[in-house]
Amino acid sequence: MSRKSLIISITAVLCIVCGFVGYYTALNRVRSNYSLISNSNDENTDALGSEDAEVLASGNKINPSTKMVYQYYYADEGSTKVTEDEPPYFMLGLTLDDMVKYYTNWDIVSFSSQEVVMRKTVYGKDSQRYFICEKDGYITIYYEENGIKSAIKEITSIDTNGLSDIEKERLKKGFTVVGDYSLNRVLENYSS
Predict the structure, then answer these.
(1) What sign does the CA torsion over 174, 177, 181, 185 have?
(2) Under 8 Å between Cβ of 108 and 118
(3) Which strands form 175-178's sheet, in the order they lie side by side?
(4) Torsion angle of alpha carbons 2, 3, 5, 6, nearest 10°?
(5) Which stretch of DSSP H or E encloses residue 81?
(6) What span, in angstroms and rounded, lies between the C-alpha atoms of 74 and 184?
(7) Quick one: pLDDT band at residue 43, thresholds 50, 70, 90?
(8) Where do the domains of the chain lie, and which CATH numbers do they carry?
(9) Mean pLDDT of 61-88
């Protein structure tokens, strides 16, 4: 066997091994994120607990009585802020698959028709003030310093033409939010 053939064979074997390791690593991450492994020691439980079985139920959808739990982890500060809310109208009827598809920046920690827990890591401080308004047909975010808008933080890709007249008017006047947590919530609502 020539040296070139040996190198190609070793490379092929390494690629196959890495592929399997990557697959099983990703599979374990998905299982842990969706709480599919039951930690219950109860003798009468199956491999999946009753809560986990509900996560897998095909009829699980977000409804008006679903409790939405948003967990924001601030990496720079090492703190987590948790809020609970009713689901916004655009989430009604969504399934777990829909949530994973539409909310790619979030980890869906748990999902049932009673409660959905979403987690997001936020980089930055929680005390920065932002001014949100419309500029050239798009939602624009400015840093706010001493009560006035200063430098542009971001011109989003969110087109204001598709928004209701009330929201267009609100953005025309502009409004202030405090912290990355609030900013992310506002942008998530507008982008849905």
Answers:
(1) negative
(2) yes
(3) 148-159, 138-145, 129-135, 175-178
(4) 120
(5) strand 79-85
(6) 12
(7) very low
(8) 56-122 (3.10.20.420), 129-191 (no CATH)
(9) 85
**Alpha carbons 59 and 97: distance in angstroms, whole number:** 12
Residues 6 or more apart whose Cβ sits within 8 Å of residue 179:
125, 126, 127, 128
- Both tokens of residue 39? 């930690």
User: Which residues share a beta bridge with 142?
Assistant: 131, 152
* C-alpha Rg value of the chain to the nearest Å: 23
> Which of 51, 114, 123, 107 is CA-nearest to residue 87?
114
- pLDDT beyond 80 at 14: no
- Going across the sheet that includes 107-111, the strands are 79-85, 67-74, 115-122, 107-111
